[in-house]
Amino acid sequence: xxxxxxxxxxxCQLLGSSLASKFEPGDVVSLxxxxxxxxxTFVKGILKALNYKYDVTSPTFTLINEYDADLxxxxxxxxxxxxxxxWVEIGIDEYLYSDNLVIIEWGNMIEEVLPDDIIRIYFEHxxxxxxxxFSNYESFSN
Length: 142
Ligand SMILES: Nc1ncnc2c1ncn2[C@@H]1O[C@H](COP(=O)(O)OP(=O)(O)O)[C@@H](O)[C@H]1O
Ligand SMILES: [Mg+2]
Prior knowledge:
Helices cover about 25% and strands about 25% of the residues. It is built from four helices and seven strands. Strands 1-7-6-2-5-4-3 form a seven-stranded mixed β-sheet, covered by helices on one side.
């Protein structure tokens, strides 16, 4: 696993920004880690790099946010809806198998719906301002 220590919210956004150009249309990325570990902050950095000019907020309550950035980005949060049937009703497969960049917070909550070739990025608290981020994504270290 490739590992990075990030020391601030800003660094977390910069990490997202640096990966934005590596991701391709059709990629599905699962962000995994506790509340407050930096998942949404990381997504903000991705969208900044993709020239999205508006606010990026957590899809905790909306479940799915869609952004028309340089790539179309679909931002999903499994946290509040752990019922797989509900996601199937919403049409999760059409979101997951598309030409968009799909980023899922808490993807690990519903493993059954995830594609096999999913990119995983894990976030862990070290202390107030430091996080450990690790991944098996090959572009993560560059
Ligand atoms: N190194 C860091 N990386 C990311 N967020 C940090 C860091 N240090 C402090 N924070 C704070 O932690 C919180 C992370 O929140 P958020 O990105 O919404 O987490 P999640 O989506 O994982 O629940 C923010 O309030 C942010 O300011
Ligand atoms: Mg979040």
